Amino acid sequence: MKQNLFVYNTLTRKKEEFKPINPPLVGMYVCGPTVYSDVHLGNCRTYISFDLMFRYLNHLGYKVRYVRNITDAGHLEGDLDEGEDKISKKAKLAQLEPMEIAQKYTIGFHDVMNILNVLPPSIEPTATGHIIEQIELVKRILAKGYAYEVNGSVYFDVEKYNSTHDYGILNGRNLDDLLANTRALGGQQEKHGKLDFALWIKAKPEHLMKWPSPWGVGFPGWHLECSAMSNKYLGEHFDIHGGGIDLMPTHHTNEIAQNIACCETIPATYWVHTNMLTVNGQKMSKSLGNSFLPVELFTGKNSILNKAYSPMTVRFFILQAHYRSTLDFGNDAMEASEKGFKRLMNAYALINDLKVSATSDVEINALLNRCYEAMNDDFNSPVLIAELFEASRIINSVYDNKLKIDAENLQLLKQLMQSFVIDILGLKDEKAADDDLPQLLNFIVNLRSQAKTNQDYATSDKIRDGLQKIGFQLKDTKEGTNWSKI
Ligand code: AMP
Ligand code: ZN
User: Fold this and answer.
1) Do both 73 and 158 map to the same domain?
2) pTM score
3) Tell me: the pLDDT tens digits for 245-269?
4) Nearest ligand by distance to the CA of 68
5) What is the pLDDT of residues 177-199, one digit of tens each?
6) C-beta 251 within 6 A of ligand 1
7) Is the dihedral of CA 295, 299, 305, 307 positive or negative?
8) How far apart are CA 280 and CA 373, in angstroms?
9) 283 CB less than 6 Å from ligand 1?
10) Together in a domain, 351 and 402
11) 43 lines ligand 1 (CB under 6 A)
12) Of ligand 1's atoms, which has the minimum distance to the CA of residue 276?
């Protein structure tokens, strides 16, 4: 913790020195996925970026309580409290229980995170597991006078809140500006104001996921779950709140309003947002139809791809851009990442074979400091990677007897590579990682089961035949599908 870390805070729109409320403890909350479908590569970018931060904070000696939720209820199709619940809709189509959908995609999400070497958070709470807490929050906001009930639904009164607080504090916009840029009332005509949003929504009879409440049977608004769960596990005021930048204008703005309305304090000090992964300059998004899945990258099975890329190449590709810059997906960029990743890991593999000399042509301390400077400058992973290429050049030169290194500098070089490549960037040598094979196979077998459940037998057969071709046999049993080497 001797390092002075600076973090860009969306709230103040500047880089600020990181000063946790109660060091060495750090509370970090990141909005997790809505488990109605597989996570795409864009989602993975966000979780890899926060994994980098989690790993660096841990490396600095902080004790991070990292909470990343699972949204398994309340996320409607429209962003104005309209449309069906995404999970319920999928469940009806597949003739499954909503919780079967949530379970299936939660497992899929964990599999992908594992393969990409994203560490699990400390707590992974679900929205459906915290209905009571959400109802309590609605009660408190109502008691403070910032919400109103209409016909079994409860709405947050943005104009009333804004008369004493700054609703647009996070994106630096005033209410008139926001009102002018908002389309007419969505869904419920019951709202008093255009910007009002639902805290609790009355369930229509056909709605599958619903709970009793003081206002009748209904379900919580999407923004409420994060306020309730961050409050429960990290307290009323904690250190870091994060998510993709697309969550900032509405989801996080509403979360802040809810927390301030009930607790009179902004929930987090630092608001950290990752930028979007784009394809041909357009945000990767399921609804735009330009998204693809990590497994398609690992197998090369997508027409946009020239070939398959390994999970660590994908992780390296994502880390080669700063988390606040947009990153455009492309085959050339992926191939460059593949080369870069191999160069780094080849150097890493040589480090134990380097000969020690009595004198040293290299001084590793300065390089080590530059690595820390890069990470301290708002987790600047591309600059860090450039420094690690310099470390790789030194390793290769010492190996080729073009440079000498003494014992002390070699020790520092080993420490630098271990800390920054393995612990902080979270990369691993895939050649040595045969132990990951079962994980990868289980992941593919799960995808096949999903295809079967969706009655997509063409895909499930394709996966079985494809695995057979590369030497793995699948056997379907009552308990599930097993794989074995042929
Ligand atoms: P969702 O499940 O849609 O709520 O998204 C889960 C997380 O992924 C959120 O933090 C989003 O901001 C983030 N996200 C969605 N699309 C992208 C993208 N194209 N690039 C980076 N992050 C994204
Ligand atoms: Zn959230």
Assistant:
1) yes
2) 0.89
3) 999 999 999 999 999 999 999 999 9
4) 2
5) 888 888 765 555 799 999 999 99
6) no
7) positive
8) 32
9) yes
10) yes
11) yes
12) 20
